[in-house]
Write a structure and sequence with these properties.
Layout (H helix, E strand, L loop, with lengths): L4 E3 L9 E3 L8 H29 L7 H11 L5 E2 L4 E2 L4 E3 L4 E3 L4 E2 L4 E3 L4 E3 L4 E2 L4 E3 L1 E2 L13 E2 L2 E3 L4 E2 L4 E2 L4 E2 L4 E2 L4 E2 L7 E4 L4 E5 L32
Amino acid sequence: MSPPIYFNPAMHGASAFAPSVALPIPNAVDDARTSARIESVVRVLAYVWFVTVMSLTGFLPDLKPVLRFRGWLVRGCFRNCGRNFQIASGVRINYTRRMTVGDNVYVAPGCWINAYGGLRLDDEVMLGPYTVVATSNHTKHDGSYRFGAPASAPVVIGRGAWTGSHTTITSGTRIGHGTAVAAGAVVTKSVPHDAVVAGVPARVIQGNEAGRQPVARPAVVAHTAEVPFTAPRLCKGVA
């Protein structure tokens, strides 16, 4: 059924007889939906570009120039990315648009990162080989974890922190600046600054005072010290 036609005396000619059509008026809900769709498209494109770069450069040796070049190629995939980002081969990062990377950050081979809940890597962070960072967890639905809604919380890794190989960082945790996480540790709660943590779950085993004070270097043994020379004794009968 066509819309009714009314005469508009303010108009002239054929345009005076125009159908009465209600024009859509944009509102905040529509704007939010549009923004969400755009962000979803950008997120997918960023993920596709990240996977493409990592796949095409995966055969290259992880030399420092290659690490920097790879980091430069993918820096636009993140919410923010500082300078001198170095990323090794075999790294997989989901939801890069929810991840912030500082300056001089290094990500070692085989790391798996899920930034769904938000992730911030401060300046000079080093992630060791096969580090896992999970910012969300599965929840149960009808007795099964398969279709449970994700429970997410942001993760922050402070400036100069270092994770050893095969460490796991769980959602909602914060690693203090200058903290070292021992290989194989599972961090389930926030840890303080300048500490060393280890174990499952991870706990503080010592303060990292070495990071605050200069380390005394061992004395260098001189290899050019003079050795007394003793003339060999001649055998009997030898002139």
